[in-house]
Design brief:
Chain A is an alpha+beta fold. Chain A has 21 helices and 44 strands. In chain A, 21% of the residues lie in helices and 29% in strands. In chain A, helix 6 (246-254) runs parallel beside helix 7. Chain B is α+β, with helices and mostly antiparallel strands. Chain B has two domains: 4-56; 61-128, Alpha-Beta Plaits, CATH 3.30.70. Chain B is built from four helices and eight strands. In chain B, the strands form two sheets. In chain B, strands 2-3-1-4 form a four-stranded antiparallel β-sheet, covered by helices on one side. A four-stranded antiparallel β-sheet of chain B has the order 5-8-7-6.
């Protein structure tokens, strides 16, 4: 004896080589758990880690397979399910109430009253749950890695080891993996013990999971050598403790534990005869051997042979006491026993193979490639041990119209438990076939990952932390004490401490904003103008070098998906800025159109190369004038022009454009020069009260100008007209993307449009609230904010036309009055931004 | 590596640019060079495609290197890319962002758009922690 483990308050001796199951079995434990729905006693069945019957909680970790997990002194083992205990489970009454909880009962009960399901749901979860999650933060999770190999062999039995050795001898780089230990590993082969293959994906890629890591293996070919699972025959009482498969019985014996004192053994093939001999030699009294006539002579001397007999049922209360068989002459015979051993053939463990496609380089060897033994069913008993599904359940489901193996699966949940159909998948298909389903509706159900139960903590190894993009000024903002948070995939400053003052800095003094997140493109090449003209509904013929223009990006349906500013660089091409989150789509979209037309154009994404700082406010020009090398007065550098300036020694592509409605300069600079430029501007701006602003202030500023955020204020099927941006479409052009759709849509009445809204109270919380006219919901508020300069709450929202095609003007957002008003709210003539 | 260049040119000119040491083919019309482009190659590219754009990528692309004997193993914790052996170029997802990967005798050099640099450094540090 090497020590003991604890089962509740009981100490269970552990010996060398014990699994948890063998230690428990030696100690007389026969009930390992209770079944999912009916709370029937469940004992050891497969002994190979397939079935759900020996799942226990070990040291707080639920779902541990006792039959394949080595026992260790000091372990704390708890059985799962059963109240107040697994041995004395009052919920066992459910077994007698099966008629009240038929298959699929939760699909059609607890519907009225509506609270009934909430109560039932909690009760059901409490009675069927496995283990408990403590909710406390766990230790650092498992790792994930990728592995590139010539060959991956899954399964380290004799066939797998031979395949691995053969491939290695041929000079291939081979990895051999197995969910358990690997004995006699071949030479020159990488060994991954304790790594279960949980899925086979395109590539092929095979995901392996161990307790500590997920390995995504990318082999040139896969050899599946996962062996076979012993068939589990279906008959009444087949789930009684003591009814076990041959491998489970001899597995116990090999660990020095007799599976029982008196055994009835059913053996239909050579492996079963081996089991019979081993049990006989191991001191188990064989009450009778039920074998086909052809194997009768192979039964050890002295063992009673029932040649050609068939299993009828197993009987017992807390465990099997009688195996009832029908002799070849029809005589029904009850055989007293405490263990009923079933060696009735193999089902290939082919779930991985069934995940592969026809062209995947996947081979199968050994028992995994063998034909399945015929399924046996007496027409009653449990089909799916995991989900407590009986033949009667399948018959009921069939009668209710679920007439294919896939539908039976979904309705009854058979095959959806921990074994994932390894024990019951063939029975389900055979049942459907026996009922008359056609071949394709009686096939095995689709095999999908995960092939083996895998802890969520291990799966989480493949999930990484959120990906953040940072501008070159990120550290500057953090140092300045900005509240930095997510804006799409970017980390951006929302405020530097006082958003109200930041707002006032823009409206009354001068302010900076990091707009380096803008998507930025250089479009150049001999046919750059053709690409721009064909891609956007923007007029180019009057856009002289050095001029800039607002543009919309439309898809083929004429719907707006982005907007931006286009600058003409003359012979050098075009400089395009667009929304922060849309760079990838814009680049792909432009490249796609260039490729489709065979244009000689280069679309160069400068988003990462270039930072950008917005200098805005009535004193912006005053600030910059002392830092630049050229005149920037309104005449020399008017609104919507672009030119190269050197600002505080930093070369900047400068655009007189902005989102905030004041004099504004966008300084586009080399990313690495951003901090230097920012600090120079801040220093120079101190005398005029400069303060940087973040997204909080911007939200108010842009709303005052009535500018929508594409994506936030718009819907996927918004056209320029619906957004009030029809002026941005060049009416003289009919060759841009979406032109034909725009022309067609232009003949139709507008059923919905984006409008400016003025509210009688409230603020940003109005966003998302439906707009109604007293009788019907007419739209929704998409943005709202309290405007200091207007001293009222303003916003944007979309509204639907009435049946008479007019639009409402007086609405309510909840109880708040909302009036449709013209945009922009602030400086409608644009005098300040042109100033 | 102090120099990085992007060459945007037609296919034939890009083929010439690929002669530069440390060149990786990003696309049919784009070559990325980790290092300097010799003058003769630069001239040849512009001769074949006068409209070619050869521009410094130092600002836009940040490099994070994994060196040491376990560089490939650590890289395998970041990406499913099959690294060239013993040296070469490959591109694709690294730590779930778009990466350009050069392998040479000194290690595995991952280049990503500069806005992902801090993220990638964090991920590289994570996979470099003792396990």
């Amino acid at each position: 004896m090497t020590g003991s483990l604890r089962l509740g308050r009981r100490r269970v001796p552990v010996e060398d080589g014990d699994s948890i199951a063998s230690a428990l079995h030696r100690a007389g434990i026969r009930t390992y758990t209770r079944s999912l729905k009916h709370h029937r006693r469940r004992g050891l069945v497969c002994g190979t880690g397939e079935c759900p019957n020996c799942l226990v909680t070990v040291d707080g970790v639920p779902g541990v397979r006792a039959c394949v997990t080595p026992a260790a002194p000091g372990m704390r083992v708890d059985r799962e399910r059963g109240w107040p205990s697994t041995d004395r489970d009052l919920l066992g009454i459910l077994d007698r109430l099966q008629g009240l909880i038929p298959v699929g009962f939760y699909h059609k009960t607890f519907i009225r009253p509506r609270w009934a399901w909430r109560v039932a749901d909690r009760l059901i979860r409490a009675t069927v749950g496995v283990g408990r999650v403590d909710g406390a933060p766990g230790a650092p999770g498992a790792a994930a890695r990728h592995l590139h190999r010539d060959v991956l062999v899954v399964g380290a039995g004799p066939a797998g080891r031979a395949a691995a050795a053969s491939a290695a001898a041929g000079g291939e780089r081979v990895t051999l993996c197995d969910a358990g230990a690997i004995e006699e590993p071949p030479a020159d082969v990488e060994i991954l013990e304790g790594h279960a293959a949980i899925g086979l994906y395109l590539g092929p890629m095979v995901a392996l999971a161990s307790a500590a890591e997920v390995v995504e293996v990318h082999p040139r070919r896969v050899v599946i050598a996962t062996g076979g699972t012993e068939s589990f025959p279906v008959f009444p009482g087949n789930d009684l403790p003591g009814v076990m498969l041959g491998r489970a019985a001899v597995g116990l014996l090999r660990r020095g534990v007799r599976p029982g004192k008196r055994a009835v053994v059913v053996a239909v093939q050579e492996e079963g005869i081996e089991h019979l001999r081993e049990l006989d030699a191991g001191g188990v009294h064989i009450v009778a051997a039920v074998v086909p006539p052809a194997l009768a002579s192979a039964v050890p001397d002295g063992v009673r042979v029932l040649a050609g007999a068939e299993v009828v049922r197993a009987e017992g209360k807390e465990g099997v006491r009688f195996a009832v068989v029908r002799d070849a002459d029809g005589t029904i015979r009850g055989l007293g026993c405490d263990v009923f051993v079933l060696s009735t053939g193999l089902s290939p463990r082919d779930d991985l193979l069934r995940m592969s496609g026809p062209v995947d380089p996947v081979e199968v060897v050994g028992d995994a490639a063998a034909a399945a033994s015929p399924t046996t069913s007496t027409g009653a008993g449990y089909v799916c041990l995991c989900e407590d599904v009986s033949v009667g359940d399948l018959e009921r489901a069939w009668d209710e119209g679920f007439r294919s193996s896939e539908l039976l699966k979904r309705y009854t949940t058979a095959t959806m438990g921990p074994c994932q159909g390894a024990m019951c998948g063939r029975h389900l298909a055979a049942f459907a076939a026996a009922q008359g389903a056609t071949a394709n509706t009686a096939s095995r159900t689709t095999s999908r990952p995960l092939a083996r139960p895998t802890p969520l903590a291990v799966l989480a190894a493949a999930g990484d932390e959120p990906i953040d993009r940072r501008t070159g000024l990120h550290d500057v903002h953090v140092t300045a004490g900005a509240r930095v948070s997510w804006s799409g995939s970017w980390l951006r400053p929302f405020s530097y401490g006082d958003p109200d003052d930041e707002y006032l800095a823009v409206r009354e003094r001068v302010s900076l904003m990091d707009v380096g997140t803008l998507a930025k493109f250089l479009i150049t090449g001999p046919e750059a103008a053709e690409l721009v003209g064909a891609s956007f509904p923007v007029r180019l013929d009057d856009l002289a070098p050095g001029r800039a223009r607002y543009l919309l990006a439309l898809d083929e349906a004429g719907y707006v998906f982005d907007d931006g500013v286009l600058c003409s660089l003359g012979d050098e091409g075009w400089y395009l800025t667009s929304t922060s989150g849309g760079a990838d789509r814009m680049e792909a979209w432009l490249r796609d159109h260039a490729d489709r037309r065979g244009m000689r154009v280069h679309v160069i994404d400068l988003t990462a190369d270039r930072g950008a700082i917005l200098v805005a406010g009535p004193r912006a020009r005053e600030l910059l004038a002392g830092l630049v090398d050229q005149p920037i007065d309104a005449h020399a550098f008017p609104h919507m022009e672009a030119r190269e300036l050197t600002v505080a020694g930093v070369p900047c592509g400068t655009v007189r454009s902005g989102f905030v409605g004041e004099i504004a300069f966008e300084l586009h600079h080399a990313r690495s020069r951003g901090p230097e430029l920012w600090h120079a501007l801040i220093e120079a701006g101190e005398p005029v009260g400069i303060a940087p602003h973040g997204l909080d202030a911007l939200e108010v500023l842009r709303l005052e100008k009535g500018h929508p955020y594409i994506g936030q204020d718009t819907l996927p099927d918004d056209t320029p007209a619906k957004l009030g941006l029809g002026w941005a479409v060049d009416a003289t052009d009919d060759a841009f993307v979406g032109a034909r759709a725009i022309e067609r849509l232009g003949r139709l009445p507008i059923g919905r449009k984006l409008v400016g809204l003025a509210f009688d109270r409230g603020g940003a919380e109005l966003r998302g609230i439906p707009l109604h006219d007293g009788t019907e919901i007419r739209g929704r508020v998409s943005s709202a904010a309290r405007s200091p300069v207007l001293d009222r709450t303003i916003g944007l929202g979309w509204i639907r036309a009435r049946d008479d095609r007019t639009f409402p003007t007086e609405l309510r957002a909840g109880k708040v009055r909302a009036e449709v008003v013209p945009r922009p709210f602030y400086d409608p003539e644009g005098a300040r931004l042109r100033g | 590596m102090d120099e990085r260049w992007s060459v945007h040119a037609d296919r034939d000119a890009c083929d010439i640019a690929m002669r530069a040491r440390g060149a990786g083919r990003v696309a049919g019309d784009e070559v990325f060079v980790r290092g300097a482009i010799p003058d003769d190659i630069r001239r040849a590219v512009l001769t074949v495609d006068p409209g070619a754009v050869i521009r410094s990528a130092v600002e836009g692309w940040s490099e994070v290197s994994l060196d040491g004997g376990d560089a490939r193993d650590r890289f395998s914790r970041l990406s499913s890319l099959r690294l060239p052996d013993p040296a070469g170029y490959v591109q694709g997802e690294v730590a779930r962002v778009a990466g350009r990967v050069f392998v040479d005798g000194e290690g595995v050099h991952v280049l990503v758009p500069a806005y992902w640099e801090s993220y990638l450094r964090r991920r590289v540090e994570e996979v470099s922690l003792p396990r």
